[in-house]
Amino acid sequence: MNLSDATLLRGWAHYLAWEVLEDQLPEGSVPARMQVKVLRLGLANKSRYYRLSDSLGQWLGERQTSDEWRRGFLKALDRLNSLPDPVPTLADEVGQWFDERVLSELPGNIKSLADLVDCLEGTFAGDIVLPEGLAPKLKNLLGFFDSHALQLGYQLNRKRKPLALPVPLSQVAPLERVSIPEALSGSQGSNRAAEPCRIQAEHDLDAITSWLSLKDGNAKTITAYKKELERLLLWAVLARGKAVSSLDTTDCKAYVHFLKTLDASNRQWVSLEPAIKSRGNWKPFYYRPKNTGQSADSQGNQPPQLVLSPRSVAYAKTVISSCMDWLVKQNYLKHNNFDSIQNTKFAQTTPQTHNRAFTHTQMQGVFSYAESLIQGGDAEFALNRRTLFILKFAFHTGLRIHELAAASFGDIECLEDEAGEHYFLKVVGKNTKERKTSLPQIFVEELKAYLRVRGLPTHFDFLPHEAPLIPNLRDRTGRRHLTPGGIHHILSGFFEQMYDHLTSEGDANHLRLANKLKKASTHWLRHSYGSYLANDRQVPLAYIRDELGHANISTTSLYLDTDAKERQRVVSAAFSDE
To answer: Which residue among 5, 261, 279, 572 is least packed, with the fewest CB closer than 10 Å?
Structure first.
């Protein structure tokens, strides 16, 4: 423990006011309350490691005002500071690193960190069911092994390992966890081509995997395509008792009909909650109930809710047919029996991007509310200050959520001329396409202000290249990025909080903003950026296209609504004399 941390704890033990403790800290430091909490938790962990259970109360209990308590606290602090900081090894007992809340949920055979590693890796592989009480603590367990990987000399393996003896496929389950019977594998499918196959595929799953491998480099595309083909394969085996390579045109029509008519009440195929594949409640289809005040289970006399929209059914057929076409060309299949099925018709509607965007005035209101949540002595200061930064970062750059999460200081580039400095951010967007997006001066100033809050230098060249613009506050090194899921969680919570605030005030002037907040997501800030540049500032569409990384300017043109507004004004004026 360094001198400043020890001084802070000693001041806290002497019951100095938080304001006094704050004055001892360097400008821009994490609030004293949060620092004390983190330091005490660290001392509690150190006490467990050295089996000094008699001092745990000093670190986990409430602060007291008696001289006796203060002397005991300072004595325990000096005692721990005289001991070297512990370094974990896989042979350590779990009780040396985790508290009773974790230990009470662990199976009795887990004694060491090595045993715990085996348990966690077995859970990821699907061989072991994680104890229910341990699930809420999983994130903390993984964080421990991630942060101590170097000291342990071991990186936790979170990848699923293939089972030597997969479970026979008898009910809906992820393909990674099952064994398809030989007769239904497609090795002897009735639609298999007679000519020598041009790919190494013994059965249908091999053939599908071969096609998916063509999409290497785009993880999102692979995931989306794999989902559609996995659904087809499971349906073919379980519902038709056939291999995919034995499906005829009648079967293919039946599958499209299945997709069109599948409703939320079908518990064999549909889940109402997002589920992880390694858990037993996974289903191939997920239905999110519409926000009508009723769940899908309590629809009363209303008709069953269809799981897939016509557009989703058409997408599924397109993906499957594309795969089958390729397999025909590779001499794996004789025919693509999905090719003769009429495409699902649906209304072609142009996305109204401006309806999923905040106006510039509304964005200023969003920023003002976020600023109002930031209190200098508040324990939530660091979290709320980061939220404000994320909002401004997203609106002033229009980056996608994964681009926000990936941004590092090494990606910032500065071009200089007589007019001054011009900052850009190198971004890897969709399909691994690289671009440079402009960093407006107003955002550069915000970034420097946030760096001062974090206690970091404001000259970008002095910062580690891998350091994130949006940090994970749990990582004290400042080098771990906040994940896209973390950004989504933070902004979703903020939009919901602001919505509750506006509706509780009952101000009719904020009704439209409140309605938007109820539906808003992180991507709305990207739309708000494009709409503001196109409509409020009349920035050329070609510039906006390049900033947003659109492949086609027609996508960018969706932000432009000035013609529609002018048309409405003309029509309104025509009836103004009535």
So the answer is: 572
